[in-house]
Amino acid sequence: MNRDSLDTPTDDLRAMADGILYINRGEPGRLRPLVRAVRDIVEYAAPLVDERIGRGGSDFITVLAEGERRGVFTRHQVLVNTGLLLFASRTIAKGDRLRWIMAAANRDPRVLADPDIFDIGRQPNPHLSFGSGIHYCLGATLARIEGQEVLRGLAERFRRFELVRDPPEYQPSLQFPSVKSLPVRWPA
Ligand code: HEM
Predict the structure, then answer these.
(1) pLDDT given at position 20
(2) Residue 78: burial class (beta carbons within 10 Å; 0-12, 13-18, 19+)
(3) Hey, which of 49, 76, 165, 172 has its CA 20 to 30 A from 39?
(4) Which residue among 99, 137, 151 is best mutated to probe the pocket of ligand 1, counting the most ligand atoms within 8 A of its Cβ?
């Protein structure tokens, strides 16, 4: 970001928020300003977190920084959440576009018991991975059958297999967490 052209921290934040909101734009080339804004906001948040580590206090950034000090959060988690908070909670005006994060809904402890645990037999399982309402995923049944056949085939062919890398490496994503690859090995 060219900070010389910006007068106040509010201008900085506004510019960064506008950059992040490129995520919603349907235009080609939207990734460049988005990536730049994410980098700028992380750069902006880093000293705010640094000065709060070990300082004590109850403001939200201090709580996150304390989590990092205790090993609960990584530096990356603290910075992206601090960044998010710096421009969140805006007024929602009529006609504004909203983005909902299904991955977060699936971790709601008021709806799913132990939401952070992968439990393949979870019952009931009111997850939102295929969306909801009029735009509910058209391919949900096909996707379920495919998943069922893949998992059944693997279980029938290999008595046991294990992750080569645990935890696996994830794609950076705001919307759908997914693994870059999932190499497994099984005993000969
Ligand atoms: C595990 C695999 C899949 C997941 C997690 C998934 C997830 C989703 C989600 C969350 C939506 C709703 C998006 C929204 O509300 O705007 C959606 C919509 C849709 N999905 Fe899937 N999907 C999967 C597989 C598939 C497959 C295999 C097909 C087609 C063969 C498919 C076709 C569609 C279509 C056409 C829509 C748009 C429905 C509409 O807007 O009315 N999906 N999917």
Answers:
(1) 81
(2) buried
(3) 165
(4) 137
Residues in the ligand 1 pocket, defined by CB under 6 Å: 102, 129-131, 135, 137-139, 142-143
How confident is the model at residue 2, as a pLDDT?
44
Report which of residues 59 and 102 the model is more confident about.
59
**N residues, the chain:** 188
User: What SS3 state is found at 36?
Assistant: helix
What's the pTM? 0.62
Query: Is the dihedral angle over the CA atoms 114, 109, 173, 37 positive or is it negative?
Result: negative
Asked if 106 contacts 129 with a C-beta cutoff of 8 angstroms, the reply is: yes
User: What is the residue with the minimal CA distance to atom 1 of ligand 1?
Assistant: 143
Q: How confident is the model at residue 86 (pLDDT cuts 50, 70, 90)?
A: confident
pLDDT the model gives residue 1: 45
